[in-house]
Design brief:
This protein has helices at 8-33, 65-84, 115-135; strands at 95-98, 107-110. By secondary structure, it is mainly α. The chain has a two-stranded antiparallel ribbon with strand order 1-2. The longest helix is centred in the first third of the chain and has 26 residues, at 8-33. It starts with 7 loop residues before the first helix and ends with a helix.
């Protein structure tokens, strides 16, 4: 498909920039997620080949702006509410859960810079739920 607004050279430059930018975002995500390097074969720019027990797909650029906007709005709403509480909830890490229509499953989002705190909090929650179920 030919782009009628960009020359071939402009399109090539834009594609090179996008590819480079995407790879740098992948590397940053990999670092923030604490994914170890592969044992053999050197670094991989493809998430499918990361040395991880979890599958990832890193997206960046304009395609993630609607997701980021929703997340930032939810984070602000939560911070405003938590800031009015006297229970210290403002100090808890934030995560967002999106529950799409037509499914009983959800999508979990959090800042990568807070992921360890979020996971630690979730583990504490799961332990408490397990203890409560055992008491019944």
């Amino acid at each position: 498909m030919t782009d009628k607004y960009l020359s071939k050279d402009e399109r090539r430059k834009m594609n090179t920039f996008n590819r480079s930018n995407g790879r740098s975002k992948q590397e940053r995500a990999k670092t923030l997620l604490g994914v170890p390097e592969r044992l053999y074969g050197g670094k991989s720019s493809d998430e499918e080949h990361w040395n991880s027990e979890v599958r990832f797909e890193v997206k960046s650029g304009n395609q993630v702006e609607p997701i980021a906007t929703r997340f930032y709005k939810a984070e602000k709403q939560s911070s405003e509410y938590a800031g009015r509480q006297k229970d210290g909830s403002i100090n808890k890490p934030f995560s967002m859960v999106a529950m799409p229509h037509g499914t009983g499953d959800g999508i979990f989002l959090c800042r990568l810079s807070e992921i360890e705190e979020v996971v630690e909090g979730l583990i504490k929650n799961w332990k408490l739920v397990k203890e409560q179920l055992e008491e019944e």
